[in-house]
Recover the amino acids of this structure.
């Protein structure tokens, strides 16, 4: 068994809360951690690791137990069930005033010798009484028994009936979720199961179609509607995976797409993807995670689904194990290496990242992941997530249990065990070896966390200061246990008494309302949705079963209402498709709703659907495969993914805008000519085909020959070659006036191109150029030379350089007369550089006036720039697209991202070492392993990861004080810069919607700003920027806007250019993607 445990360690390899920053009086939310003497709850999930059973023999040994909450005797007070691993389960009756009575024995619950995991509480036989279902680990090692169903007898006793009804599953049970999958009025059940490491768990993703009798998930249909309580398995028929690949730890059953049928989300540990099953309405499901989710948590352990941002669309929050303490983070296993991530992708697995994920639902039906932007991505080794309004302010908060009793992902421990020669140990010695290994695992007791939502999608991480003591907690559930109008929390703890947190928010005098929503049998109507209307406010909750981790919360629905004193109406959408409307309901009360007392009404459309008509253009950009980090292992992004080039202009003189799209390396560029009906036709060109070896980065159109038609300058690039290589040479294509092009025989620049812009800045009638370089291949971080050239038609070179400077890693540029003096100026943006202003002074001279124009402290990772008078004051303003806030790096002048450029190991190659602020502490971006591989001399300095975790700056890392060059980034937000009367630019961030991904291009159309974004070129440690492919700000005046609309582009689309090609149609060009025509409906 110890050898299989090694597989766990290898997969992990491949792969002090910040309360002291806050003033205690700043936060109103407070909990009292009640003692067992106060509550009468003495349950303790005590574990005694021994040679027969431990974390090596069973990898989920410390996953802990669950909590079930429900009102078993219908007295109006919720009761509590705790599942035990090596101890018996216990059931506590709520006597009121937070006092509970242990009724386990009298209830007839005998779980001695059974390893219990998840707890589900639901009325499975429609008698109006809540029953209890417990998932167990059985038929493995010394684990006996089977899953158990306790039918409520109505007299505080239960009858175990799992075998009788067909739910006596034996295997690796995690949790069950009861829901009505076929809308027939009874509760069906999904059994979530897990696996342990064996050779069957590895291979291509197609293995998920192979059935495993102990580890595979199960779906059972309840036949109660046919007259008898009985469950029949429908797993395969329904399209549910049931394989050993499924390390199932989390489940939620919710109507995710609002079509009236309950869907399923399954969170899997390790390499298997999470599953998103959409209910087809015909007793089958479609697994659509790849189509709806850009990426998921890598080690998903907990999940909850609710409306986090009050847009009436369901959102998904999953938990992982990313630490929030810098020293723990630096010595813990985390993300896959780039190579391992690529192997997984080749094996058919979707992208996974080792951090919490907040998936915001959209009207398009896809999800945008925003945990980094909301700073909810790290909560350490996390188990249970519960989405509720804990302070009754109308905003959804997040409660998380975290920590693990022993930390097997500690890299010093992994390094220690990997050096053991296991074949030298006999069977008797293995027991001692296992004990020694377990003793070597570190322990870290943490407080559970509340992410309190202060403002829309802005959260504060809270723990001990609001009354939550440290613990090793796993399963948890919520309920208003004392019926005082706020939600209390119950957690199942390892080697400690269960934790009951009494919420004291009633002291805030904020309004609330709660509902017991019952079906015609008097049971809680699982799957029904409740919508509360109060003034302009709308809130939605769905009654669900399993939530968080291995637990079930109260089915009573709770809404915090803040300062709202009145409810206009409450609508309930039942699973039969009918709506009920309830009026005259008071706040600060618990109401009972049922279909008998309601009127049928038609609810207004909850989600407006502002779509664009989207058509394929007929061009697909296909990137060549080149892995930059194999040559430059310390770089944070791939610079070989910069294209495609694009320029739109009338190339054939018919008055319609045509388009030129460049290709990637080994792909020819294309010219598409527009017809009168708005369609485009691709025109073949032999010259373009001959130049397929070039990677086309940027392009511009101008009349080089002054013959009345537009020619095309195409900038070449790519990170594969060195400066001066012929594969990097720019090209100039001459137009014959009819859209036919020939290549001009000129010796043009051969650099990794970044941006080309043309103008006649000296008013001599000839086009002049700015040629901005992106990088020095092999020297990430260094600033290549960019050049301003003027036309020199009387010379052999055709152009003459009048200014050159290493401005930065240039990505975009625009000519404009910023100061209204009649002379064109130049704005340049790029990585590790500010928004740079070069003021034209006449006589072919430019002066860098960046600081004087108020832009000296804007260094960022700028991708695009546009210039327009945004507020109609007669002064030109600047709008610039940056990396955004949905990023592991957050920068400011106080906490910049810093790159140190030097040959630290003196091997004649540049080593870019990056530091950034990790929850307030400076840490190196590269891991100890990556740094040691790049700089071998560091291995002796940092023999242990614990030593590496003490690094706080470049000196403590390299012992080098004098650095060749240092650059900083202080701004990562996409911004607008409004020019005032004194020619100073005043900065303001663009709205939150535009901070969720990189912004790659803008198109300003009067008071509308269209944009496209997303970028997948970051290394795995950063992860892709995938959460906003494009949209439009409407009514934007440089400060405010009236609305925002999505462009409804496909998930994972990487937009590079957006342009208006006729009166009502836009073109969107993608990188390694299709291109599209968009027309407003």
């Amino acid at each position: 068994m110890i050898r299989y445990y090694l597989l766990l360690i290898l997969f992990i390899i491949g792969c002090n809360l910040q309360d002291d920053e806050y003033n205690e009086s700043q936060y109103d939310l407070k909990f009292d951690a009640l003692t067992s003497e106060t509550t009468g709850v003495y349950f303790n999930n005590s574990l005694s690791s021994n040679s027969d059973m431990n974390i090596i023999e069973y990898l989920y040994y410390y996953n802990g137990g669950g909590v079930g909450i429900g009102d078993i005797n219908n007295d109006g007070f919720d009761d509590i069930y705790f599942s035990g691993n090596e101890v018996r389960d216990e059931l506590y009756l709520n006597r009121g005033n937070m006092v509970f009575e242990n009724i386990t024995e009298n209830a007839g619950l005998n779980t001695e010798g059974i390893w219990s995991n998840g707890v589900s509480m639901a009325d499975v036989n429609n008698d109006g009484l809540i029953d209890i279902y417990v998932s167990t680990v059985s038929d493995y090692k010394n684990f006996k028994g089977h899953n158990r169903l306790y039918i409520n007898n109505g007299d505080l006793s239960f009858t175990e009936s799992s075998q009788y009804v067909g739910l006596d599953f034996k295997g690796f049970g995690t949790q069950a979720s009861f829901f009505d999958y076929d809308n027939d009025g009874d509760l069906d059940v999904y059994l979530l199961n897990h696996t342990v490491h064996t050779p069957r768990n590895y291979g291509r993703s197609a293995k998920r179609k192979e059935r495993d009798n102990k580890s595979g998930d199960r779906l059972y249909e309840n036949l109660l509607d046919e007259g008898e309580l009985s469950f029949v398995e429908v797993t395969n028929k329904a399209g549910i995976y049931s394989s050993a690949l499924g390390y199932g730890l989390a489940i939620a059953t919710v109507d995710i797409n609002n079509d009236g049928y309950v869907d399923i989300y399954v969170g899997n540990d390790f390499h298997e993807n999470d599953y998103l099953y959409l209910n087809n309405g015909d007793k089958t499901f479609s697994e659509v995670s790849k189509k709806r989710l850009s990426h998921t948590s890598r080690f998903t352990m907990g999940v909850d689904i609710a409306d986090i941002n009050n847009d009436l669309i369901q959102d998904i929050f999953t938990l992982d194990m990313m630490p929030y303490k810098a020293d723990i983070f630096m010595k813990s296993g985390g993300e896959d290496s780039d190579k391992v991530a690529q192997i997984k992708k080749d094996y058919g697995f979707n992208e996974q990242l080792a951090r919490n994920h907040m998936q915001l639902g959209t009207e398009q039906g896809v999800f945008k992941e925003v945990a980094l932007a909301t700073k909810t991505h790290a909560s350490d080794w996390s188990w249970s997530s519960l989405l509720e309004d804990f302070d009754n302010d109308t905003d959804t908060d997040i409660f998380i249990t975290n920590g693990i009793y022993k930390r097997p992902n500690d890299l010093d421990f992994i390094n220690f065990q990997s050096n053991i020669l296991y074949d030298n140990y006999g069977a008797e010695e293995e027991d001692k070896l296992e004990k020694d290994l377990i003793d070597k695992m570190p322990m870290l007791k943490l407080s559970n966390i509340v992410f309190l939502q202060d403002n829309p999608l802005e959260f504060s991480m809270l723990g001990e200061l609001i009354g939550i003591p440290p613990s090793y907690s796993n399963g948890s559930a919520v309920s208003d246990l004392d019926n005082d109008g706020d939600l209390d929390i119950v957690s199942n703890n390892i080697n400690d008494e269960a934790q009951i947190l009494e919420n004291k928010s009633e002291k805030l005098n904020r309004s609330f309302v709660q509902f017991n929503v019952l079906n015609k049998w008097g049971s809680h109507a699982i799957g029904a949705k409740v919508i509360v209307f109060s003034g302009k406010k709308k809130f939605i909750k769905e009654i669900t079963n399993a939530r968080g981790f291995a637990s079930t919360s109260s089915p009573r629905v709770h809404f915090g209402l803040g300062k709202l004193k009145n409810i206009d109406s409450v609508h309930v959408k039942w699973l039969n498709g009918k709506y009920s409307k309830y009026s005259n309901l008071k706040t600060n009360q618990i109401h009972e709703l049922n279909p008998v007392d309601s009127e049928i009404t038609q609810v207004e459309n909850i989600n407006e659907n502002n779509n664009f008509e989207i058509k394929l253009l007929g061009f697909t950009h296909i990137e060549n495969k080149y892995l930059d980090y194999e040559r430059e292992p310390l770089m944070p992004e791939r610079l070989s993914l910069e294209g495609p080039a694009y320029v739109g202009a009338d190339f054939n003189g018919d008055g319609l805008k045509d388009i030129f799209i460049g290709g990637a390396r080994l792909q020819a560029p294309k010219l598409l000519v527009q017809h009168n009906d708005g369609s485009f036709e691709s025109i073949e060109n032999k010259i373009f085909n001959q130049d397929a070896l070039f990677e086309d980065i940027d392009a511009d159109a101008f009349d080089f020959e002054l013959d009345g038609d537009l020619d095309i300058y195409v900038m070449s690039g790519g990170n594969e070659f060195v400066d001066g290589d012929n594969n990097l040479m720019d090209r100039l294509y001459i137009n014959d006036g009819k859209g036919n092009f020939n290549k001009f025989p000129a010796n043009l620049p051969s650099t990794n191109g970044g941006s080309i812009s043309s103008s006649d800045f000296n008013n001599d009638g000839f086009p002049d150029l700015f040629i901005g370089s992106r990088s020095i291949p092999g020297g990430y971080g260094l600033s290549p030379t960019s050049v301003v050239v003027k036309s020199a038609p009387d010379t052999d070179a055709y152009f003459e350089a009048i200014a050159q400077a290493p401005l930065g890693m240039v990505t975009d540029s625009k000519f404009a007369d910023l100061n209204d003096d009649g002379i064109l100026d130049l704005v340049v943006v790029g990585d590790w550089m500010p928004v740079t202003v070069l003021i034209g002074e006449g006589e072919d001279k430019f002066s860098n006036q960046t600081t004087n124009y108020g832009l000296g402290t804007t260094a960022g990772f700028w991708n695009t720039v546009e210039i327009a008078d945004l507020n109609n004051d007669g002064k030109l303003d600047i709008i610039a697209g940056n990396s955004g806030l949905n990023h592991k790096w957050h920068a400011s002048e106080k906490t910049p991202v810093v790159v140190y450029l030097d040959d630290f190991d003196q091997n004649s190659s540049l080593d870019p070492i990056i530091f950034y602020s990790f929850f307030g502490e400076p840490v190196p971006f590269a891991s100890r392993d990556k740094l040691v591989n790049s700089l071998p001399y560091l291995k002796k300095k940092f023999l242990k990861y614990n030593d590496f975790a003490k690094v706080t700056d470049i000196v403590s890392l390299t012992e080098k004080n004098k650095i060749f060059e240092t650059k900083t980034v202080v701004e990562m937000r996409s911004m607008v810069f409004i020019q005032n009367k004194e020619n100073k630019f005043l900065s303001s961030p663009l709205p939150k919607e535009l901070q969720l991904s990189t912004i790659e291009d803008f198109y300003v159309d009067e008071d509308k700003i269209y944009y496209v974004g997303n970028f997948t070129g970051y290394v795995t440690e950063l992860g892709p920027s995938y959460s906003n492919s494009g949209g439009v700000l409407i009514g934007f005046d440089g400060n405010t806007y009236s609305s925002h609309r999505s462009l409804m582009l496909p998930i994972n689309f990487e937009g590079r250019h957006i342009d208006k090609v006729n009166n009502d149609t836009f073109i969107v060009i993608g990188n390694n993607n299709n291109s599209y025509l968009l027309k407003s409906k």
